[in-house]
Amino acid sequence: MAYLDSPQIVSSRKEYADSFTLARYLATGGYEGLKKALSMFPEQVAAEVDAASLLGRGGAGFPAGRKWSMLRKSAVSYLVVNGDESEPATFKDHYLVERDPHQLVEGVIIAAYALQVNRAFIFLRGEFALGLERLTQAVNDAYEHGALGRKIFGSDFSLDIVVHPGAGAYICGEETGLIEALEGKRGFPRIKPPFFPAVTGLYGEPTVVNNVETMSNLPWIVLNGGAAFAALGAGRSTGTRLFALAGRVNNPGVYEIEMVKNTFRDIIYDPALGGGIIGDKAVKAIIPGGVSAPWFGPDQLDLPLGQDEVAAAGSMLGSGSIVVLDEDSCVVRATWRITKFFSRESCGQCTPCREGSGWLERMLYRLEHGGGRIEDLDLLLDVSDNIAPGLTWPPQQTTICVLGPSIPSSIHSAISMFRDDFVAHVDHGSCPHG
Hints:
The chain has 434 residues and is an alpha/beta fold. It has 18 helices and 10 strands. It has helices at residues 22-27, 32-38, 42-52, 64-69, 92-99, 101-115, 129-145, 175-182, 212-216, 218-224, 226-230, 264-269, 307-312, 331-345, 351-368, 375-387, 403-406, 408-428, and strands at residues 78-83, 119-124, 160-165, 207-211, 233-234, 237-238, 240-247, 253-258, 283-287, 321-326.
């Protein structure tokens, strides 16, 4: 059974229908973390985040405190919050923006105070219409409450937050593509080096980019101390984390559980979480960290939900999305749909991604729709190897950003684990599972 005794750090208001309002937020301890932070020196607030060992929750898993420390020797100009959650089956940040926008706003103000930044931007996926409405209202309410603007809560610290809706490009989830879009340009990722945001970010100035869930942890960390957060989980994977559980489970949804103390089996089968597989079918495969992650088989069900543990097994927790395929799921169809998404969302700057993704999508379409050839299997792997040489994980970089080399992971996983399913599509001209 899952270990569920840990505190609900970022989803503590999930039982309230009005959790997104200022009144409910204040009634449940809202903005108390900010008041405490303002009574501390900025360096003390940053030290608490360091002590928490909070790994970024956006996908890369880079420690937030270390990212901040990279800029402390020189003045930080801007704080940017990445709310452009766009990967299929990933919806935890969407949940936080809709259900608890004031928690996000408070976290942003705390981070800005620690960094001594006076202008922050929240870049939100344009399709999050309800989330955009609620977040904008939360920012306006925070100004009226005195939590934003000049001399916050009577202190000497001032901050303005700009909520910027994106135009629906997945590539803007990559931090430099996001910065380009914020500057009013097309969301093309920048070459790194030299364009590391910590050195040359928004408007050419040093910039910190953090994820929505990362920011939402900060009020709790300041109120309870970094050591209390670090006491949860194990190793580098401290605290709790939100997981977006999707696929062939009885109870898909967003769940906050303690890292490492719980396994894939726990989140999938516990009655309080995923509730098991629909129709009591067997697990065929797990996509553990968003659709760009290499797949796991049922033999990995007891793997702990920890950053290093999953990485050591050859994949990643990534965006916090877990997709479950059951014994009747068509892996060819799943692989085709994933590849089609990446092909559509390629920004087109880099040849391996722009051209290779299209070739892969067309071959998989052919296989799924009855025109596949047996030689297509080796051709798929050959093209994939040109995009991500060696087909290793983490992938080797052949493009400006990691989108391109991430495309082959599902193809390589599916063919390696379920080659017979692909052969059956060739032999029968259709999916053997109907």
